[in-house]
Batch of 3 targets.
Target 1
Amino acid sequence: MINKVTLIGNLGKDPELRHLESGAVVAKFSIATNENYKDKSGEWQTNTEWHDVVAWRYQAEYAERHLKKGGLAFIEGKLTHRKWQDKDGNDRYTTEVLANNIKTLERRESSGNNNASNFPTASDEPAMTNTSTTTQTTSTNIQSEDDDLPF
């Protein structure tokens, strides 16, 4: 049997972190997912679903550090249900996603550079001491490799 949930959506608020007496850390937050569709009249409609997420230990600490209200996040886990009583003694039921994998999908800003890609930039390229020799050698190698191609 499989109980697996995968969500990509935006956080409704910053994760709320608690440290339990046992030393365990738990985070709770909500995430919104949207479904867009055309109604009978051809107008686009958006249906927003809110999901309660619970994360424990390392995942809770990651959520607190990296997830912020409105931010886009990837959540993977399992669906859980629990029963509890409100202050009047009435039985209440909650459905939550117990997260075991959390990733932020927001771009990171590093050292003032807004380029979020992991690709090197021109400033990261090592300096070449003799560019003419390097270019000539590269051209020769490419030419000789082309001669061996069967087409």
Target 2
Amino acid sequence: MQVELPGGAPGEESNERIFARVYCEVARAAPPQSVDFRVKPYVNTMGKLQLRDGVLVVRISDLIAGAPSTVREALAWILLSKMFRRRPPAHWVLHYRQFMNRRDVRRTHQTVRQARGRKYVSGPRGDYYDLDPLFDELRDRYFEPLLPKPQLGWSRRPSRTLLGHFDHAHNAIILSRLLDRPEVPRLAVEYILFHEMLHLKHPVEHHGSRRRVHTRAFREDEKRFAALAQAKEMLKRL
């Protein structure tokens, strides 16, 4: 699949020169002997870096390779800062996020994810909880009866930082396996599933380069969940 993103003008600084220059600033050292830069059909937009015998090996997605030079420089700062365990400059992080949050860029990214990406979906039945009947009960209680049911599943690993997410590109709600245990109250599982179901009802809003996931309507709707404070307190203890 060929990808076209809003790119920079001809004659802009090459990717090799951008990464070599930023390398010097982040590493506070002489430039690498050379930069082996290649574009790959990745789904992820960030890319990979390695330093091999003085050669900086750069692999980035075609989703970002044709972006304006300032965006590619922002990515260089982010990746090289991570490589050298430094904090990337905030203005470069902001610039990269603003570009990636543009409506046209996100639309392209989503189309590519659908075409290339493989989504692991375990199925709704876990070791202790079954998400399929839980979804039906929550839909009857809080939503319109025609709310479509996406794929439901559990994550591969019991993540503590991401308890649930709705993947729009693959139309799937995935909950962390951390929740699929007998010691986790049903109310906590219901709330996380309810929260992700709200993303089905309330699409992401775009205002220029800004992207708003939890809109005002989303937040107001979330307050309808019974025992909301109690459920959030349970999750804090997890």
Target 3
Amino acid sequence: MKRVLLIAASVILSAGVFAQQKKAEDVVKFKEMAYDFGKIKQSVPATHSFEFTNVSSAPVVIESATPSCGCTTPFKPEGPVAQGKTDKITASYNAAALGTFNKTITVKIAGVDLPVQLKITGEVLNADAYAKYESEKTQAKPAKSGR
């Protein structure tokens, strides 16, 4: 009897150890995992949408989208995303602080053990520096020929 219980416990333990974990890429396919805003003007919020497609054989639920700080606000789909359908997680950065930024949004997908990390980066410039940047950018563009 002890031998049967020991063998049964071993089989159950082995099955748990070798069970394949579902990976995010088996469930959803993001068009991109990172986005660089480049240079943005201070106090003008910047927004980007991370599109994804449900590549699984069942509806997918985005349980949460958690920002790395209070300066970033993510918006996720509220309901299930049907098989083969595309949706988005939108990240809005408030651009209050000057300087470079590198923020993450941790996305938890129902039934997937490891969350997905989406990244946004950029540099916030004050109004004068941004105006100078825009002016230099405009001057650097080659003139179009009238042919």
